[in-house]
Specification:
22 strands; single chain; Jelly Rolls; 7-stranded antiparallel beta sheet; 7-stranded mixed beta sheet; 0% helix
């Protein structure tokens, strides 16, 4: 198990941007945190109104943006000009090359999680998708290699779910054999009780915390919401 506490993440502070990096990014480097499997970046960003990232390039990366608060205006070299709002998820396959900008043109600050995942192959045709997701009971699929269950497709055998469990609700961690799992706390608090049949105090995960594990090691375990604001991402990585 790899536990990444929120306060231990790398931190970038500018006059218009506050960003917490779960993995190495923007000049921050630590060999122990250069990603987890194909998961390379989880940035928890707050961007001031009227500010953002100007046009910049990406290659050979699946870039996922989970909009948490406010809005973000997106433009890219594929011809898209979209507004990403809270509750929506954006997937951009950079592939052979794309240039884009992300500017907060709203009246207040915004918060988003930007996630980078290595694709299975290089040089694919760039693509863009954006979709709102209504979270139901349990895990709601956001990403799936085949787009199953209403999820967006991704060029990697990776799955991503999101949940906002009610107080006391347990979320089972059932991942495919041989995969890696990563839990990222968007907000609130959950307890990880550990696999069935094993004793010990639960691990408390709070806003910004991350937890990496092998699927077999987490078999039979669950996350239980402690308060009413729990908001969780779960990755299945290969």
């Amino acid at each position: 198990m790899r536990l990444r506490r929120a306060a231990e993440r790398f931190h970038t502070q500018l006059d218009w941007l506050e960003s917490w990096h779960s993995f190495c990014f923007a000049g921050h480097d630590d060999p122990a945190w250069r990603g987890f499997g194909p998961l390379r970046v989880i940035n928890d960003d707050r961007i001031a109104a009227g500010q953002g990232f100007g046009m910049h390039p990406h290659h050979n990366m699946e870039i996922i943006t989970v909009m948490v608060e406010g809005q973000l205006n997106h433009r890219d070299s594929m011809g898209h000009a979209e507004v990403l709002r809270a509750g929506e998820v954006q997937r951009m396959s950079a592939g052979s090359g794309v240039v884009h900008s992300e500017i907060n043109q709203g009246v207040g600050g915004c918060r988003l999680l930007q996630i980078w995942i290595e694709p299975s192959s290089a040089g694919i045709v760039p693509a863009y998708e954006q979709r709102p997701f209504v979270l139901g009971q349990g895990w709601t699929p956001l990403l799936d290699p085949q787009g199953a269950g209403g999820a967006m497709a991704i060029h990697r055998p990776v799955r991503l779910w999101r949940a906002r469990p009610a107080v006391g609700e347990a979320l089972a961690l059932r991942l495919a054999a041989g995969s890696l799992g990563w839990v990222q706390m968007v907000d609130g608090t959950v307890d990880w009780a550990g696999p069935e049949g094993k004793t010990g105090s639960p691990v408390s995960l709070q806003r910004g915390d991350g937890l990496g594990f092998e699927a077999e090691a987490a078999a039979g375990s669950a996350l239980t919401a402690v308060g009413s604001t729990a908001d969780v991402l779960l990755f299945e990585l290969r």
